[in-house]
Design a protein that fits this description.
Jelly Rolls, 3 domains, six-stranded mixed β-sheet
């Protein structure tokens, strides 16, 4: 047998080694490429009954319905009665009181900094992470999305917003102006992010802010509903407000159209089969409308206040049309999505949620003995299989009695005892002290150059008034006296020099007020040198009279630079001279590290 020369044999072996290395690299690349993308869509104040897939013939939501046709849908999935707690439970996989979330505004919506989020988990696993929309779990870094595992953020951090057409928003801490109707705009940003060419998979969190009020929606959707004769009604139809109801349905159809745009993008980019899409809502409906005859709406711990649709699509991984009877909850999404993606969570605290991957993949997983607790402002209910115990201790079997009319606690005594014990345990272990908030507002963090300090988080001293009793998208007005001031209980984390910018309006003839910003021993004086008159904005676009504050067309001015020393204290804004009738209407202040 002839043999190759030594040099040829060495060359042949080298080529073989290089071939194997290339093959391994190719296979490794395939494995990396197969790590799934994740798109999580969360809507705001949309109830279980606000989808045609759940039997509502008053509207049509074909794109959202298609997620259920193509994948798995939970029959019973549970969230919190209001916005910020549900967001906290999704982010952490833990009941919201554990993370210090006890309110929807003025700091009570902040998620404690020792909690790890789903953004942290996916970012640590090499994902490109982004959030677009209503954050509602803290504004100042590191409560800000950029400090909670999300590389990219566009939207607003407050609990609701005052105007939905080209509003003032933020992009990674910078104040920007939105483009067009806000839901369309948020979707545009999500689409752009998903289209980016990258070897890294994406994790996109898309928390829409509709159909939360103000009830604003483009004519394209409103025109279908403005005079519609609706066939399905609430269990108490006399309490329905037809204009509010119609606006909500129109907003839901706008959401559906945008979901269709997202799904089309996944298909066109070839990412459809390797993307997990999740769709759910943050609480029950924000008005009296058809909701399957259930008792309760937003704010209630009854079934109608906490039951949400939850849809999972992952082609070729999740059986099409799978209907899941087991109970699921927002607390399950962090551990479940991490498991489905094949990554480890970075959570160093025990989850309250469980991994539901087997259920969603169509494999039997018995969770019928599981209790899910619903809580808001010390109203507590609990769910076990098909039973719910309400906050008054009454027990209902929801398959037979979805409206919670018949108390069966004296019949199903063992079930009642189990749920009562779970509620008592929750009260003893989860809720004590959760709303005793001693956290100052964190400003001037060393890892972030910007701090947004809104009127929402401030306190008015003297005659200054808040524009509305709901703080989230409000401003301060009636500033007419040098004894008046606006204060924030604050903690400066990093000593340094900061440029101060104020967003305001001021009538013609009232310009010229001299103002002072102080924090402990530091002061900065400036002058409102330019008038900027503005009417209230938003009423013309409202389909129904709002309860929240209107907006204005704000402008900004540079007040100057202030040297801040690290420590706690009171940040105070006051006027030292008022030559006109008023100082300004104040919306927010921005600190920028120099």
């Amino acid at each position: 047998m002839s043999r190759l020369p030594l040099s040829d044999r060495l060359l042949s072996k080298l080529l073989a080694v290089l071939f194997v290395m290339a093959l391994c690299h190719s296979q490794l690349g395939t494995v990396i490429a197969q790590k799934p993308n994740v798109l999580v869509i969360l809507t705001d104040d949309q109830g279980w009954g606000d989808l045609s897939l759940n039997g509502n013939t008053n509207l049509s939501t074909p794109n959202i319905d298609q997620l259920a046709t193509d994948g798995a849908s939970f029959d019973r999935f549970y969230v919190c009665p209001v916005c910020s707690p549900t967001r906290a439970e999704f982010l952490t996989g833990r009941y919201h009181p554990r993370g210090g979330v006890y309110s929807t505004s003025a700091g009570g919506e902040r998620l404690d900094l020792d909690e790890k989020t789903i953004g942290d988990t996916f970012k640590s696993a090499g994902y490109r992470t982004a959030a677009f929309g209503k954050w509602h779990n803290g504004m100042q870094y590191p409560y800000h999305p950029n400090g909670r595992g999300f590389d990219e953020y566009y939207g607003f951090c407050s609990g609701h917003w005052g105007h939905y057409w080209s509003p003032m928003l933020e992009h990674n801490g910078e104040i920007v102006q939105g483009k067009g109707f806000i839901i369309d705009d948020l979707t545009d940003h999500a689409i752009d992010f998903m289209k980016q060419e990258s070897e890294e998979p994406f994790f996109v969190y898309l928390p829409y802010n509709t159909p939360h009020s103000p009830m604003q929606v483009p004519d394209r959707w409103w025109n279908k509903f403005k005079d519609a004769d609706l066939k399905l009604h609430n269990r108490d139809p006399k309490k329905e407000n037809q204009q509010h109801l119609r606006a909500a349905l129109a907003m839901c159809e706008n959401i559906d159209w945008n979901v269709g745009r997202l799904l089309k993008t996944l298909q066109e980019t070839g990412k459809q089969n390797n993307t997990i899409v999740v769709y759910f809502c943050d609480n029950g409906p924000n008005g009296v409308r058809w909701n399957g005859g259930m008792k309760g709406r937003k704010g209630s711990t009854d079934e109608g206040g906490v039951r949400s649709p939850c849809l999972f699509r992952w082609p070729e991984k999740i059986p099409a049309g799978l209907k899941i009877r087991d109970n699921g909850a927002a607390i399950d999404l962090h551990p479940t999505l991490a498991s489905m993606a094949g990554i480890r969570t970075v959570n160093d605290k025990p989850f309250d949620g469980i991994d539901l991957t087997q259920l969603i993949r169509g494999v039997s997983q018995n969770t019928t003995d599981r209790v899910i607790v619903s809580h808001w402002r010390n109203r507590i209910s609990a769910k076990l299989d098909s039973y719910r115990m309400d906050t008054a201790g009454k027990l209902y079997e929801l398959d037979a009695d979805p409206g919670q009319y018949k108390d069966i606690s004296d019949i199903k005594t063992e079930v009642a005892a189990t749920l009562k014990a779970a509620i008592d345990k929750f009260k003893a272990e989860v809720t004590p002290g959760y709303d005793d908030d001693q956290r100052p507002f964190v400003i001037a963090h060393p890892d972030y150059p910007l701090t947004q300090i809104p009127a929402r988080d401030g306190k008015a001293i003297g005659g200054i008034k808040r524009s509305n009793r709901f703080p989230n998208s409000s401003f301060f007005t009636n500033w007419t006296n040098t004894e008046d001031s606006i204060t924030w209980d604050s903690e400066v984390l990093s000593s340094g020099t900061y440029e101060v910018e104020i967003y305001y309006s001021c009538p013609e003839g009232d310009e010229g007020s001299e103002i002072e910003l102080s924090f402990n021993d530091s002061t900065l004086s400036g002058r409102v040198s330019k008038a900027h008159p503005s009417d209230l904005v938003g009423a013309a676009e409202d389909r129904y009279d709002r309860a929240e504050s209107y907006e204005q067309n704000w402008t900004s001015m540079k007040l100057g630079q202030i040297r801040l020393a690290a420590g706690t204290g009171t940040l105070k804004l006051r006027a030292t001279r008022i030559p006109g009738n008023t100082v300004m209407d104040f919306r927010l202040m921005m600190l920028r590290r120099k």
